Amino acid sequence: MIEHFKIEQLDLVFGKNSKKVFQALDAGQSREHIHQELKHVIAVQNVNFSVYKSEILVIMGLSGSGKSSLLRCLNGMNGRTIGKTRGQILYLDAETNQRINLIECPKNHLRKIRKHQVSMVFQQFGLMPWRTVSENVAFPLEIQGIKSTERIKQVEEKLEIVGLAKWKSHYPHELSGGMQQRVGLARAFVTQADVLLMDEPFSALDPLIRKQLQDEILELQQKFKKTIIFVTHDFSEAIKIGSRIAIMDAGKILQIGTPQDIIENPACENVKRFTEDIKGTHTFLT
């Protein structure tokens, strides 16, 4: 399997004196002690894992576990402009087919990767209310400098895929929550990015729409074979869509594996608590 990302010994600290915090970590001081004494937050601590090409890796945990903070490290939103990271985030650059460390790569290279290779889908959709559906979806292409005729063609293709072709001239406030999220998906797909980072994209939706969009993500994945890193706090959602699941708590990954691995062989009591309501209700093919 091809590693799209390889994350090694990743720490993320929020606060002004990250050097002092890293020294405290290396000296064996706890996350809680550092927060109390140094008034800094360790959002991610000594995280090591790989993300394989064309898989759906689900990162899950309770609020404050570090899952969204970790996700935002994978496109440089955290660690470059917000907080400070150390370690390695090795990314397989689609242009050069070479691995680069996103923590150290030049800013213009990182911006290029964000524009063309790694797209983000947010929980609150992030739509611009003054733009129509088509104009919202076209926005990444405008940033890329794509000509108007090509933008229109690509936008129409992606709106057809997510079932919103007839709504292209409407504004976000005229759409339901589920439809707004589909606009966000179309906007992510229109960039042609190989990687989609999805930060609790369905958590604000009602259960029926949420289930429908989960099904649609799986269908789209079958068609486009994207690498998807999906954050959720819902274990049922993680089991349904994840090729593998990484469970986080207090900034650390407690266990990573297939849904079957996680349910049948929980690595610790915290993981076991996540699986208690699920075990016995799912049958896995062997």
Task: Give an overview of the whole structure.
- By secondary structure, this protein is of the alpha/beta class.
- The chain has a single domain (3-280), classed as Rossmann fold (3-Layer(aba) Sandwich).
- It has 11 helices and 10 strands.
- It has helices at 18-26, 31-38, 67-73, 107-116, 133-144, 148-161, 177-190, 207-224, 235-241, 259-264, 269-275, and strands at residues 3-14, 41-52, 56-60, 84-92, 99-101, 118-121, 195-199, 227-232, 244-249, 252-257.
- It has a 6-stranded mixed beta sheet with strand order 6-7-8-3-9-10, sandwiched between helices. Strands 2-1-4-5 form a 4-stranded antiparallel beta sheet, with helices on both faces.
- Strand 7, helix 8 and strand 8 form a beta-alpha-beta unit.
- The protein is globular, with a radius of gyration of 19 Å.
- The two termini are 21 Å apart.
- The model has no long low-confidence stretch (mean pLDDT 89).
